[in-house]
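Quick illustration, no need to memorize.
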Amino acid sequence: MVSVLPSAYSSSGFAFGLCVMVAACGEPAASKFDSAPLEEDAIKDIAPSDFAIAPCDGVAADAFCAILAAGGKRVLIGAPSGVADGRIKGDAILPDAVLLPSLHPSAIGGLDELRYETWRAGRNGLLPVVGGIGAGDLVDGMNAAYRVPDAMAFLAEGQDRQGFDTIPLTAKTISAGDLAFDTGDLTIEARRVGPDLFGFSVKYDDQIVLILPCDAALPTSIDGDTIIIACDDVVGTLIPDILWPADAIVFISRDDAE
């Protein structure tokens, strides 16, 4: 079941406090968002005009990870250990970028796996990794440390893969307010939500979604009809519209023709 809280309560501090006291608040209200099961190739089959977010599989239950699909792009938020062993590998999903909420080991443990599995799946360029201060050092160090393993992988598999120079990652360092990803119709802005912790404000198809990692501090106010996706341990007076992780693909908007 996708845990979605009724938007009518999104600004009620009293309701949030009550939820904390009773721990679960009972069953969530019926979802106002469409959802789809995580079947084989389900994420790859999301239409370019759709705006959806899917959970990662293969990762620890307390590791924040999400696959954002909008405008024909796939953006991975969080790279915990195991992320490349699940749907990324099984369905050969090629992320257009990886956004790191933090540089904590729980958020980056799968980067080395992503280097190889996305290359094996057909990635034909450097994989962008976007994060805060230190992301560049992390990526440069990883690329340097894996230079010999990269060469060995290419010698063993390269005849069926893209070139040796496409295996590495490339880094983009961001601060709060910076655009972490921008295609014109899809923009993702970094939001500071804790010490060394980023959330991401996603704008697409006249919708705004604020994606908050676990342990984030909720903003005291949000713009208009912003949809909040967050773990159930966030701190603040606003209630998330969608609790994460979900167990299905959640559609923020969907092509009516489908």
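The first strand starts at residue 34 and ends at 36.
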